[in-house]
Design brief:
- With 109 residues, the protein is mostly beta strands.
- The protein contains no helices and nine strands.
- The strands form two sheets. Strands 1, 3, 6, 7 and 9 form a five-stranded antiparallel β-sheet that branches.
- It is globular.
């Protein structure tokens, strides 16, 4: 079993976050972690972006952070992404403050 790590960084003072990571093989989503440079009050969403089209896309988690600097999403069961699927992470920038550092961990299915 191989573990993969994908990262992203965004300054919320200039843009919201919309990061999509596609997969070239079948993987299981292990976790999504976001750390902010300071406490933020924003909405974080983790989405399944299906290779079968937007009718099959699914929101896996939506959390409203309130003056927090860390977020962790771990699926409660196996969350399998087939080759061609993607995970998408979005974070609002309603309060336009802070830098966010995201990590997406997957493992081969």
């Amino acid at each position: 079993m191989a573990i993969y790590r994908e990262t992203f960084t965004t300054d919320l003072s200039s843009a919201s976050v919309s990061e999509t990571r596609g997969f070239n093989e079948d993987v299981t989503l292990a976790e999504v972690m976001v750390h902010a440079s300071e406490n933020i009050t924003e909405t974080i969403k983790v989405l399944f972006d299906s290779t079968n089209g937007s009718n099959y896309d699914t929101e896996l988690d939506s959390t409203d952070l309130s003056a927090a600097d860390d977020y962790v999403f771990r699926p409660t069961g196996r969350c399998i992404f087939k080759k061609g699927d993607a995970v998408k992470v979005t974070i609002t920038n309603a309060n336009t403050t802070g830098i966010v550092y995201g990590t997406i961990l997957t493992e081969t299915a």
